[in-house]
């Protein structure tokens, strides 16, 4: 996002929880607002003229808010409308970034609900595990990422796979992702997991190990990486016996290969 859009998103995000807490029942309101903001995005995706009009900073904010209220107030709850009007009143660099801001606010609402329910850590883990499941099932990933297929068809396919296996928050998030693929289903699920970790003030470290780590080892690794990177880490692990020993750690684009297989490969290169 450009600077103006980043500032707009920060301002609205800072006030989001206050909107959700009005009237109590935070969990229910957060889920409703997140879902309805996604519905608004669907409407804007089908009406480019409206999307551009709501994000047009050359038009007074009051006029943009009036347009949003007149066209959308009967389709969403008062809480969701308050969040939407707050977003519409901001200055966004482009209509596309306004749309992206609404998507991020919708996700944030669902994360806030999960946090209030006490299962945000579970949601983060489910999102990460789903990215691994998709990585190991290329045909399913191909079907979910096929933009020639209607979004609702892709959502229906994934809903059948997920039924009864994940929290309702995780299901709501990933069904929205496959309906509007940004990169590919695997990377988009990883992005959601990273955003859930960010809600907890943490950064994800993806760790592949030759053997399952104990809780003590996970905690020690998290502490060590926190000292290296200067902030708390959320450790996501996967066992890969082909590593023979040690581990590979990925934090963002950085890779630390301390596996036995990696060391042997480097030794072969050096000797060759």
From TrEMBL:
Q: Which residues form the signal peptide?
A: none
Residues that span the membrane, as ranges: none
Main location class? membrane
Gene3D superfamilies assigned:
N-terminal domain of the delta subunit of the F1F0-ATP synthase
In terms of InterPro entries, this protein maps to: ATP_synth_OSCP/delta_N_sf (IPR026015), ATPase_OSCP/d_CS (IPR020781), ATPase_OSCP/dsu (IPR000711)
Keyword line: ATP synthesis, Cell membrane, CF(1), Hydrogen ion transport, Ion transport, Membrane, Transport
An annotated GO cellular component: proton-transporting ATP synthase complex
Q: Which PROSITE patterns match?
A: ATPASE_DELTA
The highest taxon in the source lineage is Bacteria
On whether 4Fe-4S is a keyword of this UniProt record, the answer is no
- Any Pfam family the entry gives: OSCP
A molecular function annotated in GO for this UniProt entry is: proton-transporting ATP synthase activity, rotational mechanism
Instruction: Note whether Iron occurs among the keywords.
Output: no
Where, subcellularly, is it found? Answer: Cell membrane; Membrane
* HAMAP family named in the record: ATP_synth_delta_bact
Q: What does this protein do?
A: F(1)F(0) ATP synthase produces ATP from ADP in the presence of a proton or sodium gradient. F-type ATPases consist of two structural domains, F(1) containing the extramembraneous catalytic core and F(0) containing the membrane proton channel, linked together by a central stalk and a peripheral stalk. During catalysis, ATP synthesis in the catalytic domain of F(1) is coupled via a rotary mechanism of the central stalk subunits to proton translocation.
Per the similarity annotation, which family is this? Belongs to the ATPase delta chain family.
> What's the protein name?
ATP synthase subunit delta
Native organism is Corynebacterium pyruviciproducens ATCC BAA-1742
